[in-house]
Amino acid sequence: MEELPVAPNEGISLSAFRSPFSVSGKEGCKYSFDGSSYHYSDGNSMTSQRSSQILTGFDTLDAAPNYDFYANTNAPGRARRTRPSLFQPTDVQCDSIPVQPSQDDSFPPPLYEETSAHREAGDSSEEEAEEPLSEPTRFGWVKGVMIRCMLNIWGVILYLRLPWITAQAGIGMTWVIILLSSCITGITGLSTSAIATNGKVKGGGTYFLISRSLGPELGGSIGLIFAFANAVAVAMHTVGFAETVQSLMQESGTKMVDPTNDIRIIGVITVTCLLAISLAGMEWESKAQIVFFFVILVSFANYLVGTFMPATPQKQAKGFFSYKVDIFVENFKPNYRGLEGSFFGMFSIFFPSATGILAGANISGDLKDPTVAIPRGTLMAIFWTTVSYIIIAGTIGGCVVRDASGGINDTLSNNNDCLGPACKYGWDFTACIKNTSCPFGLSNQYQTMSMVSGFAPLIAAGIFGATLSSALACLVSAPKVFQCLCKDNLYPLIGFFGKGFGKNDEPIRGYVLTYIIAICFILIAELNTIAPIISNFFLCSYALINFSCFHASITNSPGWRPSFRFYSKWLALLGAVVSVIIMFLLTWWAALIAIGIVIFLLGYVLYKKPSVNWGSSVQAGSYNMALSYCVGLNQVDEHIKNYRPQCLVLSGPPSCRPALVDFVGTFTKNLSLMMCANVGEPSPSALNASRNSSHVTWLNKRHIKSFYHGVVAKDLRTGVQMLLQGAGLGRVRPNVLMMGFKRDWRRDTSSSIESYIGIIHDAFDLQYGLCVLRMKEGLDTSRSIECPFKINKYSSLPVFIAVNPGFEASPKRDVNAPAPPANFSCMYESIQKGSMLCLKGKLRQLWFPASGLTLLIPYLLKRKKRWARCKVRIFVGGDIQRKEEQKTDHPLPFTMRADQCSVETHSFASFFDSVKRFEDLIGPYRLNPDQKDCEDGQDNQNCPWMVSDEEIDRNKTKTLRQIRLNEVLQDYSRDAAIIVVTMPVGRRGQCPSALYMAWLETVSRDLRPPVLMVRGNQENVLTFYCQ
Which domain of life is it from (predicted)? Predict the structure, then answer.
């Protein structure tokens, strides 16, 4: 026995027993394996990849999954690879497979091939690297997200309005406002983290997260609203900065015009400087944010030190007494004043200060790793800013009284009517409290933190840093979000702003637009007016982010697998509901405006239906609902009142038989199932052609609600049998087979006739109803012009194929579409003439021997607007002498409950001068009396299409009935818009296929209107009763 070779210290190496092989394909591809690595060559270049032996100890021929196979974009500096098709590893044809040295491994499994998506013909390099691009500036989670979010949250409200809110709502309710705001933003932060870690996040921030989760409908609307809200937030923070500067100018006795106009002038100058910083690039903007961050930290430390310092008489006169329990207890309770004096009034003013949590997500395209940076930075920012707000509200409320006069001489005298907690510390502010004229205190002075701090200029520097950093962050966020929205082309006239410049793809045009919007709101010059406007827009954004997380979770889509696990779908739903409720509690009219804008933009996108597919949770939810309803139908027995004609249409490529497709779509639209079917012959490309999405695209653009199903079979009848048995799902499956009339049956082979009639019998055997449509001009347009299915030029939307108006053309059809080719006019001119008869109120006539389906289809047609003015006339065959009696014998037509319906009885006594014409039609298929075999030498059993004299005599009555029926149709239905007639049925084995085709030909020949021959499956489709 041969000893096994063993590698030292590594166990057994299986590669030692694998024979090296190489495969050379006809197209020049080569594979080889040498035991430790495998190679791929295109003849001029070679790449190799190590096997997985290092990881597993085994050699494998399959390459590991490549990142390029799953990414939408390629990495800079190298060509992108594409996933190999299934054809490559399964069906590679090779000229030769030289095997060395063993014949046992003569057919090794082919290797996966990695090819370049951008390789041009003749390239000698398999990895022709692209020109390396300069690496744009990228930020980590601290610098890119946490600091940015904290700066945006620490805005103007912190310094200028939080002490005032504490005086109005009290310390306790202020903490409630802070915690409620933090709960909303915290839940939104968790939802944002879950969405951001579900896949690679690109630029666009909030818009990108919502649109890729909920789809373009809601994503587009919230993208516009969020970008606009950030633009207005620029104005809010700039006005806060201008207020501070104007206050400092007033203290020094300086002014330019008046206080309001001074704020406007300072605000415009400030936002212009911020625009210049933004245009300098993200790197400069990031450096500015770091400076602002440290300035704010120093100002916080300065404020906290000031609260512990002993109060000077000047500060006591302004209401500051350092930490006092009495002051804390007094300020803990609410004391609302003015028009805004309410809990939700204070909440609406404070909430914009908590809305900066998405500042980091909004620049997701500039982060090194958004899936790590967004969750970590956002949640840390929410935590630390919430702590800072609670501390400042508690400390300022425990140190400063609500009202103070500022007069150094307002000390306590022997006044027993002294009001306020300052009385206990020797100060009497009763006079200004009664007159509500106190200029100082928490309720009256916005600059209270400057007065409390150890060094007031540092607080001013903090205000400058907080307001300018927040304004700068919003000035950057709004254009970034808007740029991504513009690039998606969801709305018209905004694509101009989507162009980027520089290595960071800076939206310079978006910066200018945001600058203009900000100036418009800066002119309001009132912070308390601007803040509530922003609150509703941000709350609307947060509601949709939370709903996105909830909806993606509830649909159980396999594509929803975020790496961030600390979220709850029910908590996300709670956050969405609370956000909407608070919107209405804050400002109900602003909430209605925000929701109205969302609905308007949503309706626009639904109407335009942009050609984007982002795999949203709405699609997953639609699938879940459809699947649930389909399964639920199996638990309910069918009832005759709920019968619907669900049609399987043998249309071939739908674009080649548009009249047939349009007609069926008329009475199935929004009512029942329609499925266009195509049978292809086996060929290398037949399988791909049968599943070609261009057919569905054609149906959708024609506004026909239909499925498409293609099969490959050796012949037509076999393919139709596959469709009849396999089409549909559960109860949602076809029950009526719709097909065109075979006009060329006399020129075609006898086997084709037999196959056509066999399809009819197969439909009856499988309990299908049957409808055959015949038009004088034919149905197949591929023979008169180039079929759109065959020419790529028309594969997307063949506008030259006019919709038959009589078959209910879509009102959205472009009337300015190009005219059809000259050789295409014959068919549709006649159809349009027939439809005009219907529009003028002419008759649509129906011949009714025996089928409820023959009545139901015309009734469904008459429900459509295009056919509503048509009158239904029903003809019943019988004895003319018993006309009135036979009317009462046929009450079924009246179950249609049509407004205009008449029933007429006609005799079927045949005129025998038309019989000769029928005999000439069937003559080529008749067997001579002395002929016992077919012309090709086969016996009669193998030629079922041939007709003997016995079979003619046996079916004489039916033959004469069809002849007479055609004569009556020509007499009474020449001007009808459409004729619906019950189709004759031939007994299998007793009615040859040629005779059956002759019946169908005789009934429908020489008639200008379209003729629909209908036969049910002997099941009830109409009922007299309610139960």
Answer: Eukaryota
